Amino acid sequence: MQPADRYAVIGHPIAHSLSPRIHGLFAQQTHQHLVYTALDIEPGQLASGLRDFFANGGCGVNVTVPHKEAVIPLCDQLAERARSAGAVNTILRDSRDRLLGDNTDGIGLVRDLTRNLRLSVAGRRVLLLGAGGAARGVLAPLLALQPLELVVANRTVERALALAHTFSAYGPVRGAGYAQLDGSGFELIINATAASLHGQVPPLPPSVLGGTCICYDMVYGHAATPFVQWARAHGASQAHMGLGMLVEQAAESFFLWRGLRPDTAGVLAVLAAESADAG
Ligand code: ATR
């Protein structure tokens, strides 16, 4: 029997990553002979760690915090969606051993919103919280869904203004500070800040919630994140966490590597049940 094809997620820290479990379930479901592990690589070791992995027969990697931007110069070629995101979360090795950098985070969010949650973004007023790497990665795919308006709000207002300016050619997007949002009801609010990771919620006036408003936290946890708790407490009609985005971005990476699309609904159900047991 041929040795299994090798894949990994690289990050620092990485111990709690769900990616090995997700790709293990994909491989099982599609009968692919592969192993997928988590590799802890410190920032100073990124270039050598990546080189070693591929020199030893590695076929592809997922890239997570804090390496998503730093791997860009280590790739031989970038897909357009990685270029616009300014970040790489997937690397594949082609038949000529060149490393191709791609980004599946945006399509992961879009698939979770539109297919799993059956939300329509077209013609809606959308608020995106945050102006860091996570927000940047989903801006172009969100604007491609043709919202009526997309407002990027951030604690540091200048970053929101600059990000909106960068993406102005993609659709109707503008930047703002949180205080400026008072009185403006949105139909979809997506949290792309790191606030949930610090147990915090961006200082949002409750009036940002329109009559019918859906809230989505790109962060995922076993228990409701602070943003999801805030959304529920202030009457959002739905509040979701980013497990579906995580599974969908993984599925798109799997497709890039193996040419097969796993059944994400089945995998999501398994993970949700495991999370309920753990929580
Ligand atoms: P990432 O790549 O994860 O997006 P980042 O570039 O450090 O990381 O950006 C983190 C984002 O979360 C920023 O939008 C940050 O706001 P600032 O630009 O004002 O720093 C936002 N953020 C982090 N902690 C926050 C908090 N407690 N409240 C509101 N926003 C927060």
Tell me what the structure shows.
This protein has two domains: 5-103 and 244-272, 3-Layer(aba) Sandwich (Rossmann fold), CATH 3.40.50; 106-241, 3-Layer(aba) Sandwich (Rossmann fold), CATH 3.40.50.720. It is α/β, with parallel strands linked by helices and 279 residues long. The protein contains nine helices and twelve strands. Strands 2-1-3-5-6-4 form a six-stranded mixed beta sheet, with helices on both faces. Strands 9-8-7-10-11-12 form a six-stranded parallel beta sheet, with helices on both faces. α4 packs across α5 (133-143) and α8 (243-258) packs across α9. It starts with a strand and ends with a helix. 2'-monophosphoadenosine-5'-diphosphate binds next to α5.
Give a quick rundown of the structure.
With 279 residues, the protein is α/β, with parallel strands linked by helices. It has helices spanning 19-30, 46-55, 80-85, 105-116, 133-143, 157-166, 226-233, 243-258, 264-278, and strands at 5-11, 34-40, 58-63, 77-78, 90-93, 99-102, 125-129, 149-153, 173-176, 186-191, 209-217, 238-241. A hairpin with a 5-residue loop joins strand 5 (90-93) and strand 6.
Name the descriptors.
279 residues, alpha/beta, Rossmann fold, 2 domains, 6-stranded mixed beta sheet, 6-stranded parallel beta sheet, binds 2'-monophosphoadenosine-5'-diphosphate
